[in-house]
Structures are given as structure tokens and as C-alpha cells.
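Sat 14:20. Reprocessing the chain from the morning session after the first attempt stalled halfway. Input below, unchanged.
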Amino acid sequence: MTNERLWNRNYCKVMTANFSLFFAFYVLTPLLPLYLSEHFGATKDVIGLVLSGYTITALLFRPFSGYFVDSFPRKTVLMISFAAFSIFFAGYLAASTLLLFTIVRTLHGGPFGALTVSNATVAIDVLPSSRRTEGIGYYGMSNNLAMAIAPTIGIFVYRWTHSFELLFWIALVVACLGWLTDATVTLRAKEIQRNKSKMSLDRFFLVRGWLLGLNMVAFGFCFGVLSNYLAIYGKEQLGITGGTGTFFMLCSIGLILSRLQGGKALREGRLTFNAGSGMCISLVGYTIFILLPTLADVFHQTSSLFLLVGYYGCAILLGLGNGHMWPAFQNMTICVAPNNQRGTANSTILISWDLGMGLGILVGGVIAEFLGYNAAFWTVALVNALGVALFFLATKSFFLRRNLNTDVH
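Finished this time. C-alpha cells:
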């Protein structure tokens, strides 16, 4: 069993498609606030409201997505949701008013929610059981890499062309390529176990993993603020212009390094170790990031070099932290779920991340409007610290009590 092949053809295809779907999403993420401001004259709080609609809709679709993935042929659910996700990018090209853009953006969250659940569940299906923990870790890295690389490319393209239309086309084409890749995946025929029992919450949300989900909300909140308001914060508070692309590129380097550091721990099933170390690294990164202006004053560093080194150093730390934390939490959620609730487990962890992201985008925009971006990012540091405290005080023991896989801890 230990010699089962991890990097089989279907697994590589599903990982590639997962990278494509997140690349298409995140290539636009850091630039949409600028697009809404320049093209529609939207204020900060309106920008937060418009952008949070996507995540809220994804959040609403996730519980039903887990149910459909567990109750109907997964390949069919996957292809329908991927097709709808791709088509919506054309809607951005057609939206000529803020209202139309808001409608398209909000509705787009639905197929995104269904797609991320179905693709992740198919990835688990094509993995050999003896390599599943390790494989889920690498799978999570594919969307983390897209989250880091895509904004860099999007910002570079915009700086060269100043064309949002080109960025929308890039997202559309990449999403379609992902759909084509998933279309070639071969799944073993499985009997669909339709649950005829009384309708219950556990068919849509993994109640056994509720505290893991709550913990992930905190970390999703932090990344929601960072990914959407980093460029504006860097310009207004740190005087760094044009550095957002490099920030996310260095974040991707941190993600790659996290695989080198954390791969052995995942293979050995040390999930709580990976999660705890990742959270602590991220907390250090967020704290230093927020304190940069203060540290510059304390150490009498008036040159921009001090801020740049700290700014980009924090990017690597945040990449390391997320690279350790995300696959560990995904594995822990799957380990507390029965085999027939894999889709529900995946939807649960993604629901939690989406809820956190949506709250981060919305609350971050409101705080920035009334108190400034500095206050918004101080909120990030506080929420991240609360998430770390929750894990070590309650979530870790919660997972160990409910863990159904004796090979991990």
C-alpha cells in the first residue's frame, strides 16, 4: 500500500484544473477595488459591499454543493459547475454599470462554491487511500499557489496594458482551460448512496467539525482583508506603490517552502503540528506587517529600504503560514467525517473560509471607510491572534476526540 502512486494521471489533472479555477478568480482579486473605483466611482464601503456579495453567494451554495456531490454523480456535478463558473467571466465584460457588475459578481459566487467542493471531492476519489493525507496537502497547495501567483500576474499585466478588459479575457480563457482539463478525468463507477433518512443539518454542514470551521473563519477573515486591500494599504500607510505583485510572488515562494518543511509532517500524519506551526508563523507575519510604520519610528529608520524589507519579508512569512495551515485544516476536517460525507467535509471547510473572507472584505471596507486602512489591518492582527488562541485552547483537543483516522494526530 505504501508504494501506491500519488502522482497518478487523474490526480495531476484535477490539481491542474484546481489551479486554473483559482488562478481565474485571483488574477482579478487585487484589482477589482481599483476597477470599481476608477470605472464606477464606488466609495470604499460600496466596494466592500460589492465584492463581499461573491463570497456570500458562494457561502450559501456550499452546503447544497456538498449534498449534491455526495448524492449524485460527481463528474456531472463537477462539469456543470465548472461550465457555469467559466461563463460568468464573460459577464464582467458585458457589465456596463455598477448595478450590472454587482449582479454578475454576486451570482458568480454560486458556481464557484459548487465547483470548489466538487473538484476537491473528486481529488480525494482519485487518490490512493494510503497517500490521501499527503495528497490532500499537495492539492491544497495548488489553490494556494494560484492565490499567490495570479495576483502578481494580474498586476503586472495591468501595469503594462492598463486594460481591465484584457484581465477579464485572461480569467475567462484560463477557466475554460480548467474545464477542458477536468473533462478528461476518469472516475471509477460508484453506486450513489442516496440518503433517505430525515433531512438534517449534517447533510449540508459537517456538525462533527463545527469548531474546526469556526477556527477557519478567523483565518479567512484575515486573508479577505489582506488580498483585497493590500495595494491601497501599502500605498497609503507604507508609501509602497507597485509592490503588490512582488508581495504575492514572495508569498508563493513561502508556500513552496512550506511544502519542503511540512511535507514530512503530513506524511507522518502530524496534522495538529502543521496547523499550529502555520498559525503561529502567520501571526508573526501579520503582526510585523501592521507594526512596520511603528518599528520604523522606533528604530529611526527613515529610508524606504527598511519598510520594503519588512513588507516583503512578511509576504514570505504569510506564505509559509498558510502553506502549513490550510492542508492541515482540510485534512483534519476530512478525518472527522465518515467516508460518505467527504463532499460535506470539503464544503464545510470552504464554507468557513468563505464566511471569513466575506466578513473580512465587508468589515474591512467599512472600517477603512470610517477609521482608515490602518485600523482595518489592526483588526486583522487581532482576529488572527484570537484564531490562534482558539486552536490551542479548544480546537486541537476537539479534533483529537473526534478523529476517525488513527494514522493521524
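The chain has 13 helices and no strands.
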